[in-house]
Structure formats: C-alpha cells, structure tokens
C-alpha cells in the first residue's frame, strides 16, 4: 500500500513539474524578426514592444537588411522578416509569403545643416550618374558631394531606387564614396558632415535629427504627401512569414494589421495601409505591377 502511495505521489510530482515546465515554456515564447533596417526602425520596434506588452511573447528584433531577412524567412531561419522590396524570381525568394504592413517613400537625405532643401529629378539623376559632384551646382556651399549608397544591387533601397527611378536594376553610381551594409549606417554617415548625400526610406530617416529629407520636384516626403501619392517615390513595406510560422508569429502579424497595430504605424509617422489606400494603383501606373508582391491590392 505504501509502495502504491509512493508511486502515486511521484506521478503527481511529475505532473506538476510538467505543468510548470510547459508554463515556463509558454512564458518564454519568442519570435525572431530580421531584415530591412527601415522597416525595423520605422515600425517594428514599436510594434514588437506593444505586442510583448499585450501578450507576453517577446520578439527579438535584428537587422541584416531586406535581402538577408527575406531569404532567411523563406528558408525558415527566422520566424518573420521585414522587407522594403518585393521577392525576386530566384529560388531563395520565390514563393515568399509577403504581407504588406505599411507604405514608405524612398528619399534623398543630407545633413541637417546643409542649406539645400530639395532637388529636381534631373538634378538627382545628375548626382547619381556623376555629372554633378559639388553642392554649389545645387544651390549649396562650394563643397564636394559625398555620395553614400548601399552595398550591392539587391538590397531594398538599392534595388527599388534603381528600378523605380532609373528603370535599370544594374544602374551604376560612378562617384559613390562607400557602400555601407545598412540604410541606418548611411543615415549616420550622411548626418556627420554637410557634404553627405544618400538614399534611405522616409519611415526611418524622419526619426534622425541629424539628417533631413530633401524634396523631390518640389514635393517634400511627409507622411501626408506619401499617403496621398503626391510624393513620387512610394513603395510598400512588407513582413515575410516563414512557411512554418508558429501561432505566436501569426498572432504578431495579425496584431500589426489590426486597428491597434496600424494606429501604432501611424503614430510612428509612417503611412498605414488605410492612409495609403489607392497607392497600389498609383504604384502600378508609375513603376509597373511586376515590382509589387502579389498580395498587395487596394
């Protein structure tokens, strides 16, 4: 009798231990997010903080760029990624589950103390193609333009600017100074001196006090001007799900798309899907449907 009682007690203890372990595991649930720095700094940090506060599920937010994030999510190396470009028709990306979460504007940036406030499309083309190399030609100081661009032609900013502005994914920038690995580094480098010039996304660039975004053809890339389509270089921001997404990961996506999540997007100064209703049609007219991920529609 004592032996049966002892076995019963041991079984009960094991059951309690299993429940505690399951509870601890649930409390330790974590989502890994990686990818586009513009999407990360623009909306994901704020969304992740709010989701953790709401559910207790922690989100490890990494960078790495759109190229790495998209391919890591497609391969299941991370739970979800951020991307500021569509998936390319290559094995590492084809069939990626891409979910639009916001709208962004590709922007030219310079240091806050640079007197130049805007460029025309032709001036922008002349800078990137090396015909204008001094700020004086743009109404600024007699100072060399230090042009910073992303490494490689498949990054989110690097690829989208080439196909949207130059209509050439292989466009070269002959006078480019450096090739940093992230848009965040470009923003930092540009902000260090008045001669700096580079590309980024409005969603992150507007948060950096040391840089300013330049108007393009007289239109400033404000939240309202991007939402209305008055600013020309509009593009979507995506989350990319792995094929084996957990319920917690799907929950985060649902949260980002909910009224609460989209209100956070707007509060971060980024264009929500509702604010950008109608931009899909504009994007297709300006740049072509081939540069959008399939699920995106108004």
UniProtKB/TrEMBL annotation:
Query: Pfam families this protein is in?
Result: PBP_like_2
Which residue range or ranges hold the PBP domain? 25-260
Which keywords does UniProt give here? Signal
Signal sequence annotation: 1-28
Q: InterPro entries, alphabetically?
A: PBP_domain (IPR024370), Phosphate_ABC_transporter (IPR050811)
UniProt key word Signal: yes
Name this polypeptide is given = Putative extracellular solute-binding protein
